[in-house]
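User: Can you model how cytidine-5'-monophosphate sits in this protein?
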Amino acid sequence: GKEIQIAIDGPASAGKSTVAKLVAKHFNFIYCDTGAMYRTLTLKAMQEGVELTNEAGLVKLLSTTEIKFKPGKPDQKVFLDGKEVTTDIRQPDVTNNVSTVAAIGSVREELTNRQRQIADEGGIVMDGRDIGTTVLPNAQVKIFLVASVDERAKRRFADNDAKGIHTPLEVLKQEIETRDYKDSHREIAPLTQAEDAVKVDTTPMTIQEVVDEIIQITSNKI
Ligand code: C5P
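Assistant: Here's the modeled complex, given as structure tokens:
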């Protein structure tokens, strides 16, 4: 289509969703958090006792799973089969299990289809791991957002603190590294920078600086 697509990929806790939401707001585009979709399926599998490596079981579960985003304040809310799970999907047990579910090819295939349907609805900012490489390969703007692991652990620590989650900094660092390793080394659609993506290292940048840079890059393409 002629609608603008902005793909933002990168490792865990690089600030993708924070930045993506603000860029979407600026252009009045839809924002799609694809990580939330993998998290929501993971949460449901854990609740229903479906083994996280059981491909057939997960595909069957996903076929009767509705994942919806609804506008909310301050951020959009996530619904699983009509029930709000916005904070549940950010809990450490989901975070530490999601990469296992996300490595399964047929799960990715179905969620990729759903993500493309959302993108068909209009101008979009989509964040994840494989948006520029796989989900929206024709996106006009592709950003690969990175930051040092120390900086990302610090940011996650502050986020967690605000939510009342108290995982030590060193543990967070280890969890981030483990998740990045799994996400980058899986067989299907691993985390990798698209050839035509612009790398932005946010380590020394403020959120507003990152947002402004992406708006600038996008404005040059419109
Ligand atoms: O972005 P977020 O950290 O919420 O993503 C959670 C997990 O979902 C990632 O660690 C990854 O395993 C998976 N994911 C993915 N592909 C995407 C988005 C997320 O595999 N496009």
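A couple of observations from the model: The two ends are 14 Å apart (CA to CA). The mean pLDDT is 96.
User: Helpful, thanks.
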